[in-house]
Specification:
The chain has one helix spanning 19-24; strands at residues 3-11, 26-35, 40-50, 53-64, 73-74, 78-82, 86-90, 93-98, 101-110, 115-125, 128-139, 148-159, 165-170. By secondary structure, it is mostly beta strands. Strands 5, 6, 7, 8, 9, 10, 11, 12 and 13 form a nine-stranded antiparallel beta sheet that branches.
Length: 171
């Protein structure tokens, strides 16, 4: 196979069917390489525009090409501010285990609420599936008590034709 090299590249929302969404996000790059062997698209000196306004620049950006169904890797981070947590960031990592199982691990760091580690596990089988979600949080600044650590676990079992069975625990 090999590589396809492009210069002065612009993707104007070609993945979107709706004309409004096509104008919403535009990725421009000085150089783009489509590596068909590794199934990666690699951008050099790329920036994103929203409605014609540049909003982000990165010297390097890569993602799987459209032929890839699923691949382990970092997902988009989340940044925000909350009255209880303060300023926070979340960085999820998606892990493909096999054709029917995957997981997401997501650390969260906050300025007032401590640290949280979130996790999800998903599995599908012929007639149903299972979804597990858990978290552990530690707040060195206190909370209900000083140096409070809390855990939570929720499990959902799905059986086609039957209502879901849910279990949960918070400590």
């Amino acid at each position: 196979m090999g590589r396809v090299h492009l210069r002065s590249f612009q993707c104007d929302g070609c993945l979107f069917e709706n004309e409004i969404h096509k104008r919403l996000r535009i990725v421009k790059a000085v150089r783009v390489v489509h590596d068909t062997d590794t199934q990666d698209v690699i951008y050099r000196d790329a920036w994103m525009e929203m409605y014609g306004i540049p909003v982000a620049y990165t010297p390097y950006l890569s993602h799987p090409d459209p032929t890839v169904k699923r691949r382990s890797g970092l997902l988009a981070p989340t940044f925000g501010r909350d009255s209880q947590l303060g300023v926070f960031t979340r960085q999820p990592y998606y892990l493909v285990i096999d054709e029917s199982r995957d997981a997401t691990i997501e650390p969260m760091f906050t300025s007032r609420g401590g640290q949280v580690l979130l996790g999800e596990y998903r599995q599908r089988w012929n007639e149903g599936g299972m979804w597990l979600q858990g978290s552990i949080a530690h707040n060195p600044h206190g909370g209900l008590s000083t140096h409070q650590t809390r855990t939570a676990l929720e499990a959902v079992l799905l059986d086609n034709g039957e209502p879901p069975c849910c279990l949960s625990s918070v400590r």
